[in-house]
């Protein structure tokens, strides 16, 4: 299913990151009262009433003169309009309408994308009265919220979520496996794509991605059909390095949404960075299949155990979920690229694997006999049986007497037993515990 992306824009200190953190229920961003604190742009996945969407906080202002602000807001709005399906434009009720709010309004009026004006810091009734001046900005959708207390944020999110198509209603356009090539700038995505294009002449067609700037290419190689989704086209978007990186992350998230499996490219010389890990964990959260390709392997001085040691170290960084194929490739020398594709197709198959209830319960019973669920508050926990749910991401329901008391460590144990018994390599898995 294609993803839905919402961007938050607004001048510094209106409360964007407070709102963002509330939605993501994580406390990572720097929140500071000093206007113009430099902080990172952020992205994440938000859930609202069963609807999932990507959330971008375009933050990133730096202190400076007014004309610096002007360029910054242009940049911010451009990112939002390029990348998002809908925009939340945030203003601050405490300060009233400012010149920067008006500049942003001018930029946002030109878009056909839905814009939700959110007047933040409406913590009490007096503020609500003062905030009515914002109607003057002329937006159709206006919401009065307090990111601090959460008041009004539900209505805003309801309105945003109403734009997101139901997962069930989303029609599956094609059953051909979709593979996204993702990774940071300069890891070798274009080189890999060119190598694959050069390798084979049986390309069926180029089809437009569901969103701009992801290119879908339909392949038919050795009787295997697949669609490659590539995000290589972003370089021309921007000349500024810091922007390039942010664009590449947003684009990777979008390619991910459209894919069944992601080939995450790493640079062998640089190893895995925090940014790579962020992208990896987003793919896991989204339930996408994953294959790691360590590219530029030709540049590495190799001894007997170099690949083995490299893989071991990577797996430690990827934990807890590290049951993924890792291949050492070179786009330049065209080594093991087809193995990469084959691994990705195998992961797609693993992700679709359905286990019969009897096979599943055989494994479950053995697992329980080998290691019983730990007793909680004197109560023995008994897991009666399990069944696989009909979902795109392998999901299993375990029926037991006290579902809330099953420890995470025991859940991990069961997942590992399932992985040992059946081939789920490269695909995240979900385990649910229900009352029986
Ligand atoms: P950003 O620069 O737009 O991301 O703004 P921040 O999220 O960093 O918030 C700026 C300041 O406004 C911080 O001191 C927040 O605690 C404060 N703030 C954010 N939301 C609210 C709110 O709803 N009410 C009040 N009173 N303060 C808020
Ligand atoms: P992208 O930004 O991810 O699309 O990366 P590019 O494909 O443009 O590659 C960035 C740079 O890395 C270019 O100079 C490539 O020639 C180089 N490169 C890509 N793959 C390899 C490889 O396997 N080995 C070596 N030595 N260089 C590579």
What's the layout of helices and strands?
Blueprint: E1 5-9, H1 16-24, E2 42-48, E3 51-57, H2 66-83, E4 86-92, H3 99-109, E5 115-120, H4 125-131, E6 141-144, H5 153-161, E7 178-182, H6 189-199, E8 205-208, E9 215-221, E10 224-230, H7 241-258, E11 261-267, H8 274-285, E12 289-295, H9 306-318, E13 326-328, H10 337-351, H11 357-370, E14 383-389, E15 395-400, H12 408-421, E16 430-435
Parallel strand pairs: 1-3, 1-4, 4-5, 5-6, 7-10, 7-11, 11-12, 12-13, 15-16
Antiparallel strand pairs: 2-3, 8-9, 9-10, 14-15
Helix pairs in contact: 2-3, 11-12
Structure commentary:
- InterPro entries: AAA+_ATPase, G_ENGA, GTP-bd, GTPase_Der, KH_dom-like, KH_dom-like_a/b, P-loop_NTPase, Small_GTP-bd.
- It comes from Lacibacter cauensis.
- GO terms for molecular function: GTP binding; ribosome binding.
- The chain has 436 residues and is α/β, with parallel strands linked by helices.
- Helices cover 35% and strands 22% of the residues.
- It has 12 helices and 16 strands.
- It has helices spanning 16-24, 66-83, 99-109, 125-131, 153-161, 189-199, 241-258, 274-285, 306-318, 337-351, 357-370, 408-421; strands at residues 5-9, 42-48, 51-57, 86-92, 115-120, 141-144, 178-182, 205-208, 215-221, 224-230, 261-267, 289-295, 326-328, 383-389, 395-400, 430-435.
- It starts with a strand and ends with a strand.
- The site of one guanosine-5'-diphosphate has 18 residues, from helix 1.
């Amino acid at each position: 299913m294609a993803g839905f992306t919402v961007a938050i824009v607004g001048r510094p200190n209106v409360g964007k990151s407070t709102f963002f953190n509330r939605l993501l229920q994580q406390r990572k961003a720097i929140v500071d009262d000093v206007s113009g604190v430099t902080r990172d742009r952020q992205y994440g996945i938000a859930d609202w009433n069963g609807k999932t969407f990507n959330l971008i906080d375009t933050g990133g202002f730096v202190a400076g003169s007014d004309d610096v602000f002007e360029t910054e807001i242009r940049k911010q709005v451009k990112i939002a309009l390029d990348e998002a399906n809908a925009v939340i434009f945030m203003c601050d009720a405490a300060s009233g309408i400012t010149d920067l709010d008006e500049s942003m309004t001018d930029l946002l009026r030109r878009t056909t994308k839905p814009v939700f004006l959110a007047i933040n810091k409406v913590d009490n009734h007096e503020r609500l009265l003062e905030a009515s001046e914002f109607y003057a900005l002329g937006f159709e959708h206006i919401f009065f919220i307090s990111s601090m207390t959460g008041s009004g944020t539900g209505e805003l999110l309801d309105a945003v979520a109403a734009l997101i198509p139901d997962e069930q209603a989303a029609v599956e356009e094609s059953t051909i496996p979709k593979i996204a090539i993702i990774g940071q700038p300069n890891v070798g995505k274009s080189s890999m794509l060119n190598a694959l294009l050069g390798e084979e002449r049986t390309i069926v067609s180029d089809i437009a991605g569901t969103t701009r700037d992801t290119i879908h290419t339909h392949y038919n190689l050795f009787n295997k059909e697949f669609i490659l989704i590539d995000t290589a086209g972003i370089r021309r978007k921007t000349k500024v390095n810091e922007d390039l990186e942010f664009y590449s992350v947003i684009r990777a998230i979008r390619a991910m949404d459209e894919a069944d499996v992601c080939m995450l490219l790493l640079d062998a010389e640089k190893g895995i960075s925090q940014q790579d890990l962020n992208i990896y964990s987003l793919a896991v959260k989204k339930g996408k299949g994953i294959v790691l390709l360590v590219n530029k392997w030709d540049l590495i001085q190799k001894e007997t155990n170099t690949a083995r040691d490299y893989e071991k170290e990577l797996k430690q960084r990827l934990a807890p979920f590290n049951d993924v194929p890792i291949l050492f490739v070179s786009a330049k020398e065209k080594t093991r690229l087809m193995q990469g594709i084959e691994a990705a197709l195998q992961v797609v198959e693993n992700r679709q694997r359905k286990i019969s209830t009897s096979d599943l319960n055989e494994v479950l019973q053995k697992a329980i006999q080998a290691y019983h669920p730990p007793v909680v508050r004197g109560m023995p926990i008994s897991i009666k049986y399990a069944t696989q749910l009909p979902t795109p991401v392998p999901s299993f329901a375990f029926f037991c007497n006290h579902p809330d008391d099953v420890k995470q460590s025991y859940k991990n144990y069961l997942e590992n037993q399932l992985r040992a018994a059946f081939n789920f390599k490269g695909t995240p898995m979900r385990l649910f515990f229900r009352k029986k």
